[in-house]
Amino acid sequence: MSQKTVERLIGKLATDEEARSRYRADRRRTLEELAGGTDLLSAVELDALAATSADLLDSFADALDPRLQRVRLPREPRPEGRP
């Protein structure tokens, strides 16, 4: 059990749009990946975080100053035939 891990995950979900998108698609898997494995969270913590509303996280993120959000730069189109 780690309060620090819980706080880090909530912060990541609040400031990273891509992480929130992944969370919406598969909550438990995203939480486990962000935590670096299941051994850093107790079952109770994992259940509680997975029960957190994605809409609530979006609302919280919208209320934060944009300077605290992770910047996502658009990908530049690649020349044809290049990976």
What is the straight-line distance between the termini?
Answer: 42 Å
- Give helix and strand order, one letter per element, not per position: HHHHH
The assigned structural class equals: mainly alpha
The major sheet is characterized as: none
Shape: globular
What does this structure look like?
The protein is mainly α and 83 residues long. It has helices at 3-15, 17-25, 27-35, 43-50, 54-63. It has one domain. Helix 1 (3-15) crosses helix 2 (17-25) and helix 1 (3-15) crosses helix 5 (54-63). The model has no long low-confidence stretch (mean pLDDT 85).
Question: What features would you highlight for this structure?
Answer:
83 residues; mainly alpha
Short structural summary:
By secondary structure, this protein is an all-alpha fold. The protein has helices at 3-15, 17-25, 27-35, 43-50, 54-63.
